[in-house]
């Protein structure tokens, strides 16, 4: 029985690494065991720090290394699409903006299709691919080394390039958000670019789904107080909701409806 459980746990871990997350219900059906058995497996994998529990399942433990970019695209895809659309509504026509690397920032770019006269500066080759054909948009791509894992342009050359600009909006993501409001990521080279983007924008928009509140990452990007907008699908943390209110960060919960915002910043 121990060997069978061990093999099942290895299979669960492989599925989590492939898709970014697993659910109790889906795993119970797949392995034809009870949800209680799956919860025990997940708890043991979490005790070994291979997975991290979230409501209804688990995600790959992310203390030092991120989930693959393609897997992250699959995680909370519908939520990210709604977040992208809500964030795009905050950006007016004839604005200038940075768009950073990330699967959720890509959804913002995708939702900008009806905008006109935008100047978009990005270190995200995926964003550039989405936008370069747009007839009413000017696109500038930062130069520097390209990270094969996700098409991010990173390094000192990208930082120097971004420092030449002062734009209206910055659209950034985060790999994890701590309960104290710290924004976290995995690659210090990416963080240096993110810092330059934050410091050279008049307004900063963070786009991040609620699963980022259950994750951890080792490198500090910044703090929630530096934001002007925090666009998410939902905000289950009372502490972060209060922090938004205290720091006058407009909290937009895309899951509430197409045009609704919370009263946190009022």
UniProtKB/TrEMBL annotation:
The keyword Kinase is annotated on this UniProt entry: no
Positions of the HTH deoR-type domain: 5-60
Domain of life: Bacteria
Short name of any one Pfam family annotated for the protein: DeoRC
TM spans (from-to): none
Keywords associated with the record: Repressor, Transcription, Transcription regulation
One GO MF term: DNA-binding transcription factor activity
Name the record gives this protein: DeoR/GlpR transcriptional regulator
Organism of this sequence: Methylobacterium terricola
């Amino acid at each position: 029985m121990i060997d069978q459980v061990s093999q099942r746990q290895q299979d669960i871990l492989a599925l989590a690494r492939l898709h970014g997350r697993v659910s109790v219900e889906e795993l119970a059906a797949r392995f034809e065991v009870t949800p209680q058995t799956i919860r025990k497996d997940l708890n043991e994998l979490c005790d070994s720090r291979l997975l991290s529990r979230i409501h209804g399942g688990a995600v790959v433990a992310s203390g030092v290394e991120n989930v693959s970019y393609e897997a992250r695209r699959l995680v909370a895809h519908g939520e990210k699409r709604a977040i992208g659309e809500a964030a795009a509504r905050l950006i007016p026509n004839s604005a200038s903006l940075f768009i950073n690397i990330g699967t959720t920032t890509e959804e913002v770019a995708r939702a900008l299709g009806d905008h006109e006269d935008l100047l978009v500066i990005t270190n995200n080759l995926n964003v550039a691919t989405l936008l370069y054909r747009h007839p009413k948009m000017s696109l500038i791509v930062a130069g520097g080394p390209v990270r094969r894992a996700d098409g991010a342009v990173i390094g000192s050359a990208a930082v120097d390039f971004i420092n030449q600009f002062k734009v209206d909006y910055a659209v950034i993501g985060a790999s994890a958000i701590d309960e104290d409001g710290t924004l976290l990521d995995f690659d210090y080279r990416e963080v240096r670019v993110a810092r330059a983007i934050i410091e050279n924008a008049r307004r900063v928009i963070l786009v991040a789904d609620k699963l980022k509140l259950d994750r951890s990452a080792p490198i500090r990007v910044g703090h929630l107080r530096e934001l002007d907008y925090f666009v998410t699908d939902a905000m289950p943390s009372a502490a972060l909701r209060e922090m938004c209110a205290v720091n006058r960060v407009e909290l937009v919960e895309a899951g509430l409806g197409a045009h609704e915002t919370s009263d946190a910043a009022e």
